[in-house]
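Subject: mismatched residue count in predicted assembly?

I count 236 residues in my input, but I want to confirm that the predicted structure covers every chain. Input:
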Amino acid sequence: MDHSCTVYKTMDYLAKKWTIMILLELHKGREWKRFSELKASMKDITPKVLSSRLKELEDEGLVENRMDSTAFPVRSEYRLTESGKDLMNVIHDIKMWALRWKIQNEPCKHLDCRLCVL
Amino acid sequence: MDHSCTVYKTMDYLAKKWTIMILLELHKGREWKRFSELKASMKDITPKVLSSRLKELEDEGLVENRMDSTAFPVRSEYRLTESGKDLMNVIHDIKMWALRWKIQNEPCKHLDCRLCVL
DNA sequence: CGGTATCCTTTCGGATACTG
DNA sequence: CAGTATCCGAAAGGATACCG
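Triage response: the counts match. Full output below for your records.
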């Protein structure tokens, strides 16, 4: 397997567990979201996984973080970058493909599919 | 994590190791490709993984198989279905996104990026 | 040829406790 | 609050041998 393939590399982190959901949460509503807020919005995600996904997405340039260390407790927030927002269009294309060819699929349950911001 | 999300489910099998490469191989050149031919074209893939990926893709309706059991040795061939071909457009969109935002990436090495059928 | 069966290593992610 | 550290079980995938 060749990890130099740009498509492969992209899929590789996008498909990790929770990644899409995190992007989705960051895409909804207000820009900046706190760690605890993200955690609360995703039932069952563990802090370890959330932390490591956010770090990966930062490394890939899809997410940016700002921190206020002077505050106590420390305030840390995340949002999508421009490339992150643009990626949501691609994810939308994936959804459209799926709806074109997978009509027999059950609608998503964790979110109302019609309200899904994807 | 909710496995009812159609986007998540799609990403889930697309990002498995070798899947994209297999789709790419099926997308190139002649329609029907033999098992051994696919295997030979992907250095290092094991028969177990190739077999299981092809099965997943068949289950998802992206790939179809035809077999001639009367021949000896048995002749088995695979090709993309219509939805599989359509998915290549989505994969192309992913590539375009990556090229838009990841210009600093090294070009792919396993294939000449400019010749890549994606 | 076109796979399957078996074994084994590595990676992933869940659970939980802890800290500045 | 915003993570990190540790431990653990499950699952993925590589290596290899084998079979109709």
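Residues 82-101 of chain A form the longest helix (20 residues). Marking this ticket as 'not a bug'.
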